[in-house]
Amino acid sequence: MPDSSRKLSRDKPRGTQSVERAAMLLRIIASHNRAGLRVVDLCALTELRRPTVHRLLQCLMRESLVARNSRTRNYHLGALLYELGITASPAVKLEDLCHPFIAKLAEITGDMVFLTLRSGYDAVCIDMQEGAFLTRTHMEIGRRRPLGIGAGSLAILGAVSRDDAKDVLSCNKTRWAAFNGLTAQKMLKQLKKTRERGFAVHDGSVSGARAIGVALMDARGLPFAGLSVYAATSRMQESRWPELIRILRQHVTIIEGAIKKSGNKTRGAAG
Question: What is the pTM of this model?
Fold first, then answer.
């Protein structure tokens, strides 16, 4: 059974398994859309047989949901998904509603700020804003990563119920290995610290940068997004954390109030 996305049940009506597998492929391709993925990569990540993956990809390509780079032979998301995304967007986008507050937070801290939205077992960066002190990052708007990777994403995971966290750990344990060899045991330690602190810290010792994040809660009290500040390690010393957390929580309160006032239906755990 694949760990790389939502679990496939054997007790589903006939025909739905193909839909679930196609959706799983789309989510995995979305996680690596910039570089794209080969068939062999998709087979390894989904644990599906090559003929099955090939058949699904051919169908998705015919519907313009997936595109293949003729030079690299890597698969990327297709143009139709972009068109469907525009149509599916709410009247007031969450990122548009939150951006003024994201920009203000970046101005106050001087550092880069990210808004991350939960999507099932993943988290997607939906907005980012540079501060006065530029820090190199590989993150970009629209990038999808396994839930728990990055401060905002880890803050979300730290705020979910124990049962939900256990489910995420079971599904994502093999996916985290792609991020500097992160193991489930290490993630459990990070998760424990996050719960104890009430906020998340992502220590990017390899990149020379560090991030700190807190979760945003919906009207039901469920975490649906994460707000984080990212800076060079020299600017993110532990002595600065209390002030950053105070500012982050102030903006979380403001954003949650703005969302409630707008009537925006935020996506929770189902994503």
Answer: 0.70
Query: In terms of Cα–Cα distance, which of 123, 112, 224 is closest to 176?
Result: 123
In the predicted structure, residue 223 carries a pLDDT above the cut 50: yes
Tell whether 116 and 162 lie within a shared domain.
yes
What are φ and ψ of residue 122, in 5° steps? Answer: -120, 175
Strand (E) or helix (H) holding 76: strand 75-77
User: Which residue in the block uniquely carries the two structure tokens 């993956």?
Assistant: 53
**How far is Cα 175 from Cα 148, in angstroms, rounded to an integer?**
11
From CA 2, how far away is CA 10, in angstroms rounded? 13
The better pLDDT of the pair 213, 13 is held by: 213
Q: 């939502």: which residue's tokens?
A: 6
- As a whole number of angstroms, the distance between CA 181 and CA 131 comes to 30
- Helix (H), strand (E) counts: the chain: 9, 8
Asked whether residue 9 is assigned to any structural domain, the reply reads: no
Rounded distance, CA 197 to CA 240, Å?
Answer: 15
CA-to-CA dists, residue 206 to 203, 227, 267, angstroms: 9, 22, 32
Number of domains in the chain: 2
Predicted confidence at residue 42, as pLDDT, reads 92
Say yes or no: 95 and 61 in one domain: no
| Domain span at 109 | 90-262
Nearest to 227 by CA among 242, 241, 244, 213: 213
Indicate the average pLDDT of the chain: 85
What's the rounded Cα separation, in Å, for the pair 171 and 254?
33
